[in-house]
Design a protein that fits this description.
The chain has helices at residues 2-14, 53-61, 75-84, 88-91, 106-112, 163-176, 201-207, 227-231, 236-239, 255-263, 282-317, 349-352, 379-387, 401-404, 473-489, 509-514; strands at 28-34, 63-65, 68-69, 116-122, 134-138, 148-150, 155-157, 184-189, 269-273, 276-280, 324-330, 353-354, 356-359, 368-370, 374-375, 415-420, 432-437, 440-445, 450-455. The protein is α/β, with parallel strands linked by helices. Helix 6 (163-176) packs parallel to helix 11 (282-317) and helix 7 crosses helix 11 (282-317). The relative contact order is 0.18. It binds calcium ion (CA). Residues 35-36, 75, 331-332 line the site of calcium ion. Calcium ion is lined by residues 35-36, 75, 331-332.
Length: 515
């Protein structure tokens, strides 16, 4: 009998039938993540500034989660959190420091659980990917044009190609060449729409001269807010460089002089408008900067939307759609002129919120929407749950499958904890931690000992800091109790609160091949 069983098992393996837990119906997972794509630049989230028909298809044919939040709104930390299901203070990546990829990650667990795993595109964790059968990554931030990508053993520069197209084509190649006897897990990580927002010529032409509406908080004067907003340096008005604005350097400049010119933040700009040369300063210059920033940002988003369309077409055309989970998200949100800002980092809504759209026709009903609070620590448990693999206790998130099935558990979280560390750091954004509930947000800038409190129901744009105003004491006490409860429950013992961690994480890949 036992011999017969062994024979059958051997035949199953030989025939390519999966024999691990979960069986043949385990879903494939395609996780598409962009860098810095704010939810409010996606049609399905009600964008006023662009249209994203392909990304929107995921919401129409599947689910849209309206309240997904980053636990530390910055690139490298969010990536480490997504892989580990842990907050920054547990996974050891609070700023742009190196991720120890020998740690437990969702990729390793899926690989061990019988998945064929792949990582294509922007990795940005300083160490080489582990837990992937195939990987091909940009070094550090990577570049938009003629991108160089590394594999474990080789490298290739894609001359004449645009980074979003390269990543898309490599993702399709991964799926084409995959072994057919395993489900697959593919992370497709785009560089776009990260700074310096360099679109390809087709999409640039599409947005050239288009007037993008300014957000309602564009001229926010920061009245009632603490020092942090006043001191920050990610303002459209003052902090976009000539490189960001795509201004052409004088032809006689070269080398360090040229680089210096490009990195300068201009107070006046001379342009040709309607055939006349005009010099812009003051308010007209700020409005012009916003347009230049957004035209390029949105053009790079459009290349991503095309990419999603190509990936969906591949899945649809290869009979893979029904049992493949396709997720679209970004590593955090972004300010699109909101509060006069670009970039992210702050716990304010535009930066905190991550887009999260999922198609999985076998399980998710078309047009599902959830407003429950979900976090990037939940992604890894979700993948494992879908794959039928136990979620390790060290993971701090919770599977989102119940929300995707439109059945929110009664004990689902009603508040979330956030912490940003990079201070002193780029853009002079002050370190802070805070709590967001379904109705309120309390932020503590711990190095300043200053607080902000917002009523998200009556002040959705977070313009009025209620902290210290009469009549708020009871609310503040309740929110502080919740803040410290979460902080303790999540094991945040101020591990990295005052540590100066090394910045910049290019390499290894054998220290980028001996550079
Ligand atoms: Ca990012």
């Amino acid at each position: 009998m036992r011999r017969m069983f062994r024979l059958i098992l051997a035949w199953l393996v030989f025939a390519g039938v999966p024999v691990v837990a979960g069986g043949a119906d385990r879903p494939n997972i395609v996780f598409i993540m962009t860098d810095d794509h704010a939810a409010h630049a996606i049609g399905a989230y009600g964008s006023h500034v662009n249209q994203t028909p392909n990304i929107d298809r995921l919401a129409r044919d599947g689910a849209l989660l309206a309240n997904v939040f980053a636990t530390n709104s910055i690139c490298t930390p969010s990536r480490a959190t997504i892989l580990t299901g842990q907050y920054s203070h547990i996974n050891g990546v609070p700023v742009f420091n190196r991720f120890d990829s020998s740690r437990m990650t969702v990729a390793r667990l899926l690989q061990q659980g019988g998945y064929y795993t792949g990582m294509i595109g922007k990795w940005h964790l300083g160490s080489d990917p582990i837990g992937f059968d195939r990987w091909e990554i940009l070094p550090g931030q990577g570049v938009y044009v003629d991108p160089l990508l590394y594999t474990a053993t080789g490298e290739h520069t894609y001359i004449g190609k645009y980074v979003t197209d390269v990543i898309t084509e490599l993702a399709i190649e991964f799926m084409e060449k995959r072994p057919r006897n395993k489900p697959f897990f593919l992370m497709v990580h785009h560089k776009a729409p990260h700074r310096p927002w360099e679109p390809d010529s087709t999409h640039a032409a599409h947005f050239a001269g288009r007037r993008i509406p300014e957000p309602v908080t564009f001229w926010d004067d920061y009245e009632t807010r603490t020092d942090a907003l006043h001191e920050n340096q990610q303002r459209v008005a003052a902090d976009l460089t000539r490189r960001d604005l795509k201004l052409e350097p004088p032809p006689d400049l070269a080398g360090a002089e040229r680089a210096s010119w490009l990195s300068t933040k201009p107070n006046s700009v001379t342009i040709v408008r309607d055939g006349r040369t005009v010099t812009l300063t003051g308010e007209p210059l700020v409005r012009w900067k916003y347009q230049r920033y957004m035209q390029d940002y949105l053009a790079t988003v459009q290349s991503v939307d095309d990419s999603v369309g190509r990936l969906l077409a591949f899945l649809d055309g290869n009979g893979l759609s029904k049992n493949t989970i396709v997720i679209y998200t970004s590593d955090q949100g972004f300010f699109l002129g909101d509060h006069g800002l670009f970039d992210k980092r702050f716990m304010y809504e535009e930066s905190l919120r991550m887009p999260f759209l999922v198609r999985w026709p076998a399980v998710i009903k078309r047009g599902t929407t959830s407003h429950a609070i979900a976090l990037n620590v939940d992604f890894a448990p979700t993948f494992l749950d879908a794959a039928g693999i136990p979620v390790p206790r060290e993971m701090q998130g919770r599977s989102l499958l119940p929300l995707l099935r439109a059945r929110t558990p009664a004990d689902w979280r009603t508040s979330m904890y956030y912490r940003y560390y990079h201070d002193p750091g780029d853009h002079n954004t002050r370190a802070h931690y805070g709590v967001r509930t379904l109705t309120h947000k309390l932020i503590y800038f711990w190095k300043k000992d200053q607080w902000e409190l917002f009523d998200l129901v009556n002040d959705r744009y977070e313009l009025h800091n209620l902290y210290g105003e009469p009549g708020q004491d009871k609310l503040i006490a309740t929110l502080k109790a919740e803040l410290y409860r979460l902080k303790e429950a999540l094991g945040d013992k101020d591990q990295f609160a005052n540590e100066q961690l090394p910045n910049g994480v290019d390499g290894p890949v054998a220290k980028l091949r001996g550079k």
